[in-house]
Amino acid sequence: MAVIPVARQPLTFAERTYVPQILGGLRTTFRHLVRKKTTLEYPEQRPAIPPGYRGVPTLVKDPNGREKCVSCQLCEFVCPPKAIRITPGGIPAEAPTAHVEKAPLAFEINMLRCIYCGLCQEVCPEEAIFLQNQYSLSGYTRAELVHDKQKLYELGGTLPDQHFKWDRKKAAAGRGNAH
Amino acid sequence: MIPMPKPDLVTVNIDGREIAVPKGTNVIEAARLVNVDVPHYCYHPKLSVSGNCRMCLIEMGLPSVDPATKAPIIDPASGRQKINWIPRPQIGCGTNVSPGLHIRTTSPMVKEAREGVMEFLLINHPLDCPICDQAGECKLQEQATAYGRGYSRFVEQKNVKPKRTQLGPRVMLDDERCILCSRCIRFSKEIAKDDVLGFIDRGSYSTLTCYPGRPLANNYSLNTVDICPVGALTSTDFRFKMRVWFLKQTNSIDLESSVGANTVVWSREGVIYRITPRRNDTVNDTWMADSGRVLFKQVAAPDRLTAVQVNGGDSALDHAINAAHELFKTSAGAIAVVGSGRSSVEEQFLTKQLATALKASVQLVSRVGEGDQLLVSADRNPNVRGALVTGLISTLPARQLTDLTVAIDAGQVKTVISVGEDLTAAGLTAAHLAKVAIVYLGTHANATSAAAKIVFPTQTVFEKSGTFVNQQFRLQKFSKAIPGVAGATDDLCLLAKLATVAGRSLVAGDLANVWQALAAAVPVFGQVTFANIPETGLLLDCTPFAVLPFVEGETLHYKPAAATA
Fold this sequence. Notes:
By secondary structure, chain A is of the alpha+beta class. Helix content of chain A is 28%, strand content 13%. The radius of gyration of chain B is 29 Å and the shape is elongated. The two termini of chain B are 38 Å apart.
């Protein structure tokens, strides 16, 4: 490889005094002093969560308080790190939601395994599982970070429903055969 | 190798491929031979053809001949005989092959016909897939994906029908999902001979129902769940337990009787969820009895033995083997072995090794029930013939162990080794049990294990691999579906250890090596190894045992020797 010798340029008088460089540095410093802050006083101040953010996976209820999950186990199937574990079960005949027939007996998401990929939300045919805004998750034990059904509903709360699929089905059954 | 066309074969052309098939084959089966899938719902290879789902529509044609001279008409464009294509689609299941028949399964007409049929089947079908147990093995799902139009044009109200009708103790009906294929009706009538199912009402009101006052309660009712192409009939036992796509399938053998129905055990992470039949046209077709489907519950039964015991206290396996060794030494010459018709061929072979080493007499306990002439035979031991073939016994087992009770009373027997048999059920009293030292190898607790000096917990048929010889002298293998329960020892390993301490040298305790010894010792097995036994079983030479008065009556694919003579 050819070597190209580059001659070092001698410093000018102004450069040798360092004054322009110091002033330039001070300009940057003072500009930052008066500029709007970009950091937050976390945890007292919290950032705004943009729409589509994938936080902790949660289970949600519909506006009538019905648990939407029917334990079809598609999320358990699709979950890449196998964080979800569902025990399916039936709904007793005397329950008001007996027409839905199926609900999870137990629903566990191991947050130590979860990778927040959102595939469970994408695959859910009942729109029952959502990755919502919670992002700060910690615990003192491993067991604490395996979210059970109760914890998942606590985190999820109620979300608006676009379809009311099962309510409409129940209403249709009440009306009887359309043919 | 090109098979020679036989006189009873006819050549048909399926999607341009010529194939010779037996006369009387229908188009679905003929297409299957050239790996062409003709979608269908109502057709089932083991039931009569009803042709009501219309899913198997195909286009067919026959070579053209001049009506006057019968001379073939040649198409000038191709130089071949012209084909007269029927301008309407035909059903594949109800069309039997005829010489020169041409079939198209991929033409635009067939494709449109399938899309139309799928659309009609789906208009009233509820969107139940998330809660439907059939999801994952549903023909409607599969064929809607493969042959459907992809979206629905139906904007009207869907039909409303009863969704939870209990047809019998084990079968639940969801009428909305039913596509009225009538497979279950035909099965009940033709195979189970219990004609309780039928359709009532017409058109979109049609519903499947039982005859009033007669539930679908026969011992074959769950086969209707298996053959239901959709999720209309579901098993009450398996309902909402687990999605099928999680389940691992392991080939096994039904152990409730000497029929040896071929089964599939469905398990996930060491838990069995259901048992279904596996097709074997020479044993059980595609059926099995309901009673054989619940046998997996014995795996997690509360009375399962899980700890090696010596004199009533928990012990280590090596310690118990040593205790057995001491027992064998002190009671040498006064030992009796009670083998089992529920043990596998390999275990019976090792039981024989053990008995030979101890110079002990061997008996088996018979279990005789009533045969149902279908898939439950009178002999409720799955493997009595295995004991005959391996030479463990030479005569058929008796129901009562009279010889043993006499010998115990006479003080000739001091130690009894029971391989999984409850001796009190075989005629021994508690007093008899108290007189002898019992070594019990078994899976579940019973009066014998309670009285035993040494108890070795062993594995159920679902936790080990092995073979049974069924009533046809067909050697059939079953495979390990789930790992053994903690505390139980593999039967082969245990029997090999016991035979070794009894003085037999070099007894192998693993399947491959046992089969080496077995093939060497039993001429009828010849070159058989466990690996090369076909999944449909291997018919053994039964002539040496033809004189024995077997208890079985006639069942599906089996005629007792006395009946044929």
